[in-house]
Design brief:
The structure holds 2 protein chains of 2 kinds. Chain A is α/β, with parallel strands linked by helices. Chain A contains 9 helices and 10 strands. By secondary structure, chain B is mostly helical. Chain B has 2 domains: 243 residues, no CATH class; 263 residues, no CATH class. Classes of the chains: A alpha/beta, B mainly alpha. Chain A: This is ABC transporter ATP-binding protein.
Chain lengths: 254, 566
């Protein structure tokens, strides 16, 4: 494996749904070993971009490479290096946490003994061991995120792609997830995640890209993008949102 | 900072919500579903045409007594035809089609609507559908009959009766599916639900035998007597009221209309009860009871005893997960129960229909199978095999967006399809074996076990092959509700057509077994089992091989089609 390849490279990815353009040509280079935050408002095309990058959604145009392997030409090799946690996608949630992990492990062609050992460790660290025989469908939102992360980590991928890993997660679980991700990145792994929580991105990421209206508006290392200001100020300016309300909602404070 | 408005009592609604709003909402949702989807519109029109064709034939059947001016069989036609209509509305959604949940009750849970408003609204919305329109057209034949036989007053009563009958049909189908959904959702009473379905189907058997016997004897007066009795039950009351007036029994009409109204009311009350639990229960649907303590590693837990033999690899994991899902997912479990019930009773009914008369003719039970033949047995087995395998026609739809896990892991299509077939067969093959044995024993021909089992294996295998293709190419998303009978609007017609197509194709692929049964005579009784098993196994493996290739090429597209739109 040469280090020259970026962990994830996107070129001209585009997708339109029923006439509306969701993603209009995204180019992105994620350096290996980086902690990459993909920022954007709701509906910016974050999920669509990441889905096309990992092989879940076929792009209308463009291509994606994982460590130099084309996701759409050579999917098997690329997917082997990938760990994915999609958002808004169900897990096979009629399994218990342990069963789900075993399923993902075996699906990845792992040795059963290794699966058993890693699953036990992951469940323990993520504090999911107490759930015992509870089905994932009965988990809380935070627990579902954690088991999803465990599924993505189980086979030791080189690149981790996470869609909204901190959405609907309580502070305790969020801290735990942050901890695990930091350790993973420190060990040489690459993390790409989407979010609209500025604090988390500022604290974790080495690189940031701001996506709005289906195109990349700002990209670079955190300090390049942020400059002298806070990330939130840059974000609001780039996205062009309004911050103050005028007379319209007067009935709210009647 | 509390807003002052929260302390004040909410103002009374300016405009009360009425059924009209629900109907308009449903029309809007249906319309939006069509937007930009040409094939959906085409399917809808196709379904509407099929419905119209059935409606027209029903219309002429109902109108026949009136058109010919022959009133003798008017009550018979009205009671029997109308009764069958109600029965169909009652049972078909459970067995085959599901109910259209365009307006999912759970979505109204947060709105300040009284239960009464909600039930009448949803009921009115349920009336807006192609099947209702078809029944309306067909039952207008009754109005024509009543008017032709008894003038305008009878016709007027018939109009009221038919309208009541239509309401009864819709109310019955809604109440029953909703109640069943509630039962199946709770894991504790799921076995009770299975028993209830079985009993219902079991009641059909004797009724059919009785009906056939009556037909055979052609004792029309006796049949008319039965029809008169049916006319006094909610099944026949709405349909016969107009005929009664036409034939001079004016006093019965108000009583029968009252029976109808009472039945509708009772059904709506029943529905509103289960509706409430559907609305509230959707959140904590089927919380698992505390299970046994954790034993063994994660891998050991994944594999149920049923799939314990499988190797601990990718194929094994897929089989184990599917096997777990066929039991844990209410939607899939409902399908398994249907196969079990219909699979046993339909062939027994078909083949024993003849035996029933033999007994009546006092020829004794042993000659009862005289009416059945290897060809008839093979045909009924064909039906069961096709019915069992068609359950897999939308196997990826059951998974929904969870299928993404398999796409991300890059599971080869062939392994995927073979594993799914294997897991499903773990449940179905024992059932089919029981069907084969039971049927040959009931027929009094134990020597035919090879014939029944062989035909079943062949058609089931052929069906698996056909449905591999259908499931990859014709998948559609199922709504993410806890009602196992729920269907997306628009998908209802698509599902019906696809199911029909796949059943016909499977049957055609299995036809060689019927031909062999007809041509080869007694030798076939012994050859059928090995030939049938080989044929079925070969077809299934070939199907998985070829369809797996297709699946490899369109995994992301398949994922997109089975992901529910939100």
């Amino acid at each position: 494996m040469t280090v020259e390849h970026p962990a994830l490279a996107l070129r001209g990815l585009a997708k339109r749904f029923d006439g509306t353009i969701a993603v209009a040509g995204v180019d992105l280079d994620v350096p290996a070993g980086s902690f990459y935050g993909l920022l954007g408002p709701n509906g910016a095309g974050k999920t669509t971009t990441l889905s096309m990058a990992v092989g879940l959604l076929r792009p209308d145009a463009g291509s994606a490479w994982v460590l130099g392997h084309d996701v759409w030409q050579d999917p098997l090799t690329a997917k082997r290096l990938l760990g994915v946690m999609p958002d808004g996608v169900r897990l096979f949630d009629r399994l218990t946490g342990a069963e789900l992990l075993a399923y993902h492990g075996l699906l990845r062609g792992m040795d059963p003994a290794v699966v058993d050992q890693r699953a036990a460790e992951l469940l323990d660290v993520l504090a999911l061991g107490d759930a015992g025989r509870t089905l994932v469908v009965d988990y809380s939102a935070g627990m579902k995120k954690k088991i999803g992360l465990a599924c993505a980590l189980l086979h030791g991928p080189r690149l981790l792609v996470l869609d909204e890993p901190f959405e609907a997660v309580d502070p305790v679980s969020a801290a735990l997830i942050r901890d695990i991700l930091t350790r993973y990145a420190a060990g040489g792994g690459t993390v790409v995640f989407s979010s609209h929580v500025m604090e988390v991105v500022e604290r974790l990421c080495s690189h940031v890209a701001i996506l709005a209206g289906g195109t990349i508006k700002r990209v670079g290392t955190l300090s390049e993008v942020r400059g002298e200001r806070s990330l939130e100020q840059v974000f609001v300016e780039v996205v062009g949102g309004r911050t103050a309300t005028g007379e319209e909602l007067s009935w709210l404070s009647r | 900072m509390a807003l002052p408005v929260s302390a004040a009592a909410p103002a009374a609604p300016q405009r009360p919500v009425s059924a009209r709003h629900f109907v308009r909402l449903k029309l809007r949702v249906m319309g939006n579903n069509f937007r930009g989807q040409g094939w959906r519109i085409a399917l809808f029109i196709g379904g509407a045409l099929v419905g119209l064709w059935f409606a027209a034939s029903g219309f002429f059947l109902f109108a026949a007594p009136g058109l010919t001016g022959d009133g003798r069989y008017a009550v018979l036609v009205a009671a029997a035809g109308g009764g069958l209509l109600v029965l169909g509305w009652l049972l078909l959604p459970l067995v085959f089609f599901g109910v259209d949940e365009t307006l999912d009750p759970a979505r109204f849970a947060l709105l300040p609507l009284s239960r009464r408003t909600l039930v009448t609204g949803l009921f009115a919305a349920a009336l807006v559908s192609v099947p209702v329109l078809a029944v309306l057209v067909a039952s207008f034949g009754l109005v024509l009959t009543a008017w032709g036989l008894g003038g305008w007053s009878a016709g007027l009563v018939a109009v009221v009766g038919v309208a009541g009958g239509l309401l009864l049909c819709v109310a019955a189908s809604r109440a029953v599916t909703s109640a069943f959904a509630t039962m199946l959702r709770s894991r504790r009473v799921r076995d009770l639900a299975a028993v209830l379905l079985a009993v219902t189907a079991a009641l059909l058997g004797p009724l059919q035998v009785f009906g056939l016997a009556a037909l055979r004897e052609a004792d029309w007066t006796r049949l008319t007597g039965v029809a008169t009795v049916i006319g006094w039950t909610p099944f026949g009351a709405p349909w016969t009221a107009g005929i009664d007036v036409a034939q001079g029994r004016v006093w019965t009409a108000p009583v029968k209309l009252l029976i109808t109204a009472a039945a509708i009311g009772a059904l709506l009350v029943w529905w509103s009860r289960s509706l409430e639990s559907a609305m509230v229960g959707a959140v904590s649907a089927g919380r698992a009871p505390a299970r046994r303590g954790v034993t063994g590693g994660a891998v050991g837990q994944l594999f149920p005893r049923l799939a314990g033999w499988a190797r601990r690899d990718r194929f094994g994991a897929l089989v184990a997960r599917e096997a777990r899902y066929w039991w844990r997912d209410a939607r899939r479990r409902a399908n398994l129960i249907t196969i079990a019930v219909v699979g046993i009773f339909v062939p027994v009914m078909i083949n024993l229909g003849g035996a029933g008369f033999a007994v009546e003719d006092e020829r004794g039970l042993t000659t009862g199978a005289g009416d059945s033949s290897p060809v008839l047995v093979t045909l009924s087995m064909l039906f069961v095999g096709v019915l069992a395998s068609v359950t897999l026609a939308n196997q990826f739809g059951f998974d929904g967006s969870a299928y993404a896990a398999n796409v991300v892991a890059g599971v080869p299509g062939r392994v995927e399809l073979r594993a799914r077939m294997t897991a499903f067969s773990l449940y179905v093959l024992p059932m089919l074996a029981i069907v084969a044995v039971v049927l040959s024993v009931v027929l009094g021909r134990p020597g035919w076990i090879g014939l029944t089992a062989g035909s079943l294996a062949a058609t089931y295998g052929a069906g698996l092959a056909v449905n591999s293709f259908v499931s990859v190419l014709g998948a559609y998303s199922l709504p993410e509700t806890s009602n196992p009978f729920a269907m997306n609007s628009g998908a209802g017609i698509a599902k019906g057509l696809l199911t029909l197509l796949s059943m016909i194709t499977s049957a055609v692929v299995a036809v060689p077994m019927v031909v062999a049964a007809a041509l080869l005579g007694d030798a076939w009784l012994w050859l059928a089992l090995p030939v049938g098993v080989a044929y079925g196994l070969g077809a299934a493996l070939l199907g998985a091989y070829l369809a797996g290739d297709v699946l490899d090429r369109r995994q992301p597209e398949l994922l997109a089609t089975v992901t529910p739109r939100r």
